[in-house]
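Our example pasted here:


***
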Amino acid sequence: MSAEATNPGNPEAADRRRGRPRPALRGLRRIGRAALLGPAARDGLPDALEHVAKVHRHHHPEADLGILSKAYQLAESSHRGQTRKSGEPYITHPLAVTLILAELGAETTTLTASLLHDTVEDTDVTLDQVRAEFGAEVCYLVDGVTKLEKVDYGAAAEPETFRKMLVATGNDVRVMSIKLADRLHNMRTLGVMRPEKQARIAGVTRDVLIPLAERLGVQALKTELEDLVFAVLHPEEYTATRHLVASYAGRADPLAALAARARTILADAGIDAQVLVRPRHFVSVHRVLLTRGRLTDADLGRLLVLVTEDADCYAVLGELHTCFTPVVSEFKDFIATPKFNLYQSLHTAISGETGEVAETLIRTHRMHRVAEAGVIALGNPYAPTDGTDTPEGERADPTRPGWLDRLLEWQRTTPDPDTFWTSLRDDLAQEGEITVFCAGAAADGPGGTIGLPAGASCVDAAYTRHGDAAHGCIGARVNGRLVTLGTVLHDGDSLHLLMAQDSAGPSPEWLDHARTPAARLAISRWLARPQGAGEPPAAPAGRRNERRRVPVHRPAGPDHAATASGLAVADLPGATVRLAGCCTPVPPDTVTGFAVRGGTVTVHRALCPAVARMAAMGRQPVGVRWRGAGTGGPGCRVTLLAEAFSRPHLLPDLTEAIAAQGAAVVSAAVEPPHEQLVRHTYTLHLPNAAGLPSLMRAMRQVPGVFDVVRATTTVRP
């Protein structure tokens, strides 16, 4: 916690050029000077705490500042004599961290713990003393932050370090809030470190802490950390971006003109709205430049419209889309479907009269606070309602994002730190998110939405929604269409997962389609289980196109040709009639015939591919017709293809359904499952062709079967 010096690139000056003040830094200079003078009191508060108290009272007018004063006095006395590498008293660091959190609107308990967050680690103060003077809640937070600092951020220690970080964070997200503010202050004063240490700290910040800030919704911390990391790891690009932004400083700002016009339009419509120009931070500008290859004046910022009520957001959207030209592809509604980190806003883009395009954010004032400060803006989720302290241990946090619960489950079920670390890094590295609408059905649970990383498949959706119960997923419907579990989902898709209690479980192929760590870890655990515990082994690799022959009963009676001659008549005197095995026609199919060697006429269904091939070869068809009225007649053979999701006992269930319809199985072939799909091919003897439709209906009603069709290709024995 002792990384100090000047900020690389002086982002404060750059922010002033872009019109974004930095009150936190100005406050830090004031409290630094006050700390040097000691804890002399004024109006009941130490001088060094005055600015923190003023900012805190702005967000929480009724806050009790007495506990903050008491915490500061303990921190100052315990850290007295300690200095940072910059030469400043060490107390300036917890004061700076506390001011950062106060600016974000943190409640009093968090600020109290922030002032004390280094005392147990670096001084003689004990947790018992903190508990006795400040209560169990503050003690819990201080202990959580202390645990995060006990292991060095070396490459070998990272997995276990962040496992502990996650355990502490999972029980109370305020622990991570303090940690993020602590890292931000250290990054602001990183310049006294050796270049290699700067790069290592910046790398960990980039890979883990910035993504965690994103997932906690603390955008204010995330964006500044991104700029600071950018300055350390990519100094040339950072300097070039700063100069590029500075080169636009003297030009007319098209966003200001658009904002003024938008204010007039909304005022005329009777909508009370605040329209601001929100500058992009350096990393955002750099990303735009990389994506588009060039910058325009309008690319340096966005329009931000703040209103009072949710309904006003949509009213603003309607007015802007009416009076400006909207870019339809840029519209996103994160109010109806909030992001995983609690973020809510309407996103759109509008074009002005001269063609400049302005990205526009529309949100309420409360949404804006949450967008900037994330979980910090939501207050104390554990505030007791009965006057008692909140007990320690596992807690139920109504504001804790769902992804954090999933990470906690991973660390509990993944004993290997390296595996856990890899999964955590993969999850944090994912960029872009999609929202999928889940259909409500008895087998799939209630309806709702789930957030997934871009590129996620139905496999990922199944494990995100059902956890380990997704082992029983046998298929999915996306936007009403039956698809394989490997199908990639897109934003706004409607998903209906098909579940079965007696599924064979996941196959190794599922790992090829799993993008989320939750899915990969769950599938890997299943596949690592010993065989023979009721789970059928997976099909050997490389044998997907083989068929497994199934012993079947062959009915007694005339052979197929003899039976056929009694079914159909050819317009060729003396010819023997034979039904084709490729399409197995039965009455009342529309049929045609072709003469073959030996004076035999082969009868095909009119839609059989063989008919088209014969015609292309110049073969002349022979007229054929069914005996009688074509309504049934004597027994016949037919080949059916049953498409199904793989599950145990599917074959006996299908043969039982076939037998119940009075048909006999002449032969059957079962292909090994591929992506949980399996195809059964049956050649059946029907006592009467008129029973074919009811037979196919009965087969389709077998659980797991989604289609039964007539065969149109030859089934080789």
